[in-house]
Design a protein that fits this description.
The complex is a heterodimer of chains A (227) and B (374). In chain A, helix 3 (102-112) crosses helix 4 (118-128) and helix 3 (102-112) packs parallel to helix 5. With 227 residues, chain A is of the alpha/beta class. In chain A, the strands form two sheets. Chain A has a six-stranded mixed β-sheet. Chain A is globular and about 50 Å long. Chain A has a single domain, classed as P-loop containing nucleotide triphosphate hydrolases (Rossmann fold, 3-Layer(aba) Sandwich). Chain A starts with a strand and ends with a strand. The longest helix of chain A has 17 residues, at 174-190. Chain A is built from six helices and ten strands, in the order E-E-E-H-E-E-H-E-H-H-H-E-H-E-E-E. The longest helix of chain B has 34 residues, at 294-327. Chain B folds into two domains: 2-44 and 249-372, no CATH class; 62-226, no CATH class. Chain B is elongated and about 95 Å long. In chain B, strand 3 and strand 4 (106-114) form a beta hairpin. Helix content of chain B is 53%, strand content 18%. In chain B, helix 2 (15-45) packs across helix 9 and helix 10 (250-279) packs across helix 12. Chain B has a six-stranded mixed β-barrel. Chain B has a two-stranded antiparallel sheet with strand order 2-9. The two termini of chain B are 25 Å apart. By secondary structure, chain B is α+β, with helices and mostly antiparallel strands. The chains are: A alpha/beta (227), B alpha+beta (374).
Chain lengths: 227, 374
């Protein structure tokens, strides 16, 4: 599995006096198999960093190299393809389709990603997160913890090289939060993926193998841990 | 799964779905009925020309349509026989005349009589008259005008331009689109009723010798007979249709109504699908964040639009037939050709595609980056 390398990545918003620096010359290397947590106070640049890692936005300067390709240089259509093939996302608010059940949510993700045997793959992913028996339930019939586990299943069903999670435990209780954290850590360890989690939640930190602390758009700390 | 998502989101949209379906039903119905009216009107406008058995027509100079034929010299029938390629020539009469029923009611009719050899699909007046024991002055009307003219199936007298005639039979398929009934009679009787001079007729019809080019014979006739118009049957038929459809504005009015139906349907469907799309914009943002292409997003929106189109369109198409049956009490010449259903269905598909292209804009343009902000 390849690394992801960020070189001198800077990003700012606004113009003139209202110009605000979100990221200031970030150098970073993320490795597969490592459960990485990105933390920091609000406005420190966490969301900007994860958006750039996820090819959602392009930095003002710098490069983001994945599999020898600088994804900041590719056209929007190729960025869509990159997101489709290489990345799995987990969101704070789950972002499941309310009209579809758990299995269908994952099948839609696989359909977008042009996979075949979608039903089988969806059920396998739900099996990994322990929700195979609830494949037929819609999001409004599931608890928050179950919804987030479905979101994890959706994020890993297409076997991406990078899994990005934005505050995945923020709306979960301790038990469900721990379960989702454990799942994400397993994805990193057992499946050798790059897993980067943006969070304020201190409950995640003991599980992390690497904690990157952002402040004012800069890396204020980069700590390797033994979880 | 994209189609499943489209269907489920439509079902969740509640009242807006019904508005869209109503719009489609209305649009389908309006397009079908107005399209059929337009087609039927064009058929009716050239019905006599298409029914007469002739290859070429000679009419007065500048005659725009069959309904406006004016007297010409009947010698053109003889003169045309001198042109190479003309096999035979006959005469026909058409003209407006007042008719008075026994109860005193008066109305204007168009009297038509063609020499029997060229009668084609026109009523066989002479034979019908003979069957009733009449030697002349027989009049045949379309069934749709029977009540207007007071014909009840029995032999009745009527005064045509102050000359006695006899209603003796009904025919079908010759309902007048101008409101004035068509009255068929024998050529000689038509000549007499309209009081044309002995040397005059309304039009001359010709047969071309087998194997000869109708267009070539027409050109030869045109070079010989320069003070009349000479048309092939197809040309005169098309000219009659174009006159009524274009020059009178009738076709424009019917076309505008059909286009209006399309426009109303487009606006209603586009507006509904647009609002459903806007309501689900976060779902589209999530799809785009996952790498969905614009095509994926458009597929969902198009599926919603097409589902509305198929359901509403089927109901609308099913209504056209019964509605036409009712409308024929008012518009006797209305026909709904089977291909009209296919044309309306194709227009509906176009409508749905256009509506989805409009409605998909917010979904296609949504910034996938909002998934980390919202």
């Amino acid at each position: 599995m390849p690394d992801v390398e960020l070189h001198a990545v800077s990003l700012s918003f606004g113009a003139g006096a209202a110009r605000a620096t979100a990221l200031d010359c970030i150098d970073l290397r993320l490795e597969p198999g490592i459960f990485t947590v990105i933390s920091g106070p609000s406005g420190s640049g966490k969301t900007s960093l994860i958006s750039i890692l996820g090819a959602m936005i392009t930095p003002d300067s710098g490069s983001v190299v994945v599999e020898d390709e600088d994804i900041t240089k590719i056209a929007p259509v190729q960025r869509s393809v990159f997101r489709r093939e290489k990345i799995g996302y987990i969101f704070q608010s789950f972002r499941l389709m309310p009209a579809l059940n758990a299995e269908e949510n994952i099948r839609l993700s696989l359909e977008i990603r042009r996979f075949d045997r979608r039903r089988q793959r969806a059920l396998e992913a739900l099996e990994i997160v322990g929700l195979a028996a609830k494949a037929h339930l819609r999001p409004d019939q599931m608890s928050h913890g179950e919804k987030q586990r479905v979101a994890v299943a959706r994020a890993i069903a297409h076997r991406p090289i990078i899994v990005l999670a934005d505050e995945p435990t923020a709306s979960l209780d301790a038990s469900n939060g721990a379960q989702v954290t454990r799942l994400l850590a397993e994805v990193a360890h057992d499946r050798e993926r790059i897993v980067a989690v943006v969070t304020h939640d201190p409950r995640i930190l003991p599980t992390a193998q690497r904690i990157i602390r952002l402040e004012d758009g800069r890396i204020a700390g980069d700590q390797r841990c033994h979880a | 799964m994209k189609v499943t998502l489209a269907v489920r989101n439509l079902r969740r949209s509640g009242g807006r779905l019904w508005v869209s379906l109503f719009g489609i039903v209305f649009a389908t119905f309006l397009m079908g009925v107005q399209g059929s009216l337009l087609y039927s009107f064009s058929l009716a406008a050239s019905r006599i020309v298409d029914s007469v058995d002739a290859d070429l027509w000679i009419v007065g100079k500048g005659t725009p349509t069959f309904d406006y034929v004016s007297p010409i010299a009947e010698r053109y029938a003889v003169l045309s026989l001198g042109v190479d390629g003309v096999r035979d020539a006959g005469r026909g009469i058409a003209g407006w005349a007042p008719i008075q029923r026994p109860n005193g009611d008066r109305t204007l009719v168009m009297l038509i009589g063609v020499e029997s050899r060229y009668r084609g699909r026109l009523p066989t007046v002479a034979e019908l008259a003979a069957a009733r024991g009449l030697s002349d002055s027989g009049l045949v009307i379309d069934a749709s005008d029977a009540s207007t003219l007071g014909y009840d199936g029995t032999l009745q007298t009527a005064q045509v331009a102050a000359r006695r005639g006899y209603f003796l039979a009904e025919t079908r398929g010759f309902a007048s689109f101008l409101g004035s009934p068509l009255l068929f009679t024998d050529y000689i009787d038509a000549h007499r009723f309209l009081r044309l001079e002995r040397t005059q007729t309304s039009f001359v019809v010709l047969h071309v010798e087998p194997g000869r080019s109708t267009a070539a014979v027409r050109d030869a006739l045109r070079s010989r007979l320069t003070d009349v118009d000479i048309w092939t049957t197809n040309e005169f038929s098309a000219q009659s249709r174009m006159f009524w459809l274009v020059q009178t504005g009738a076709g424009g009015a019917l076309s505008i109504a059909a286009i209006l139906g399309f426009g109303i349907g487009l606006v209603l469907v586009a507006q509904t699908i647009y609002s459903i799309t806007a309501e689900n914009i976060e779902e589209y943002a999530t799809m785009k964040a996952m790498g969905a292409s614009n095509g994926d997003v458009q597929t969902v929106v198009l599926a919603q639009s097409l589902i509305c189109g198929i359901v509403g369109g089927l109901v609308g198409l099913l209504l056209i037939g019964p509605a036409a049956t009712v409308l024929r009490f008012i518009v006797a010449w209305l026909v709904v050709p089977y291909w009209m259903y296919f044309i309306v269905a194709a227009a509906l598909v176009l409508l749905c595609v256009l509506a989805s292209l409009i409605a998909a804009r917010p979904a296609v343009r949504v910034d996938p980056g909002r998934v980390f902000r919202a």
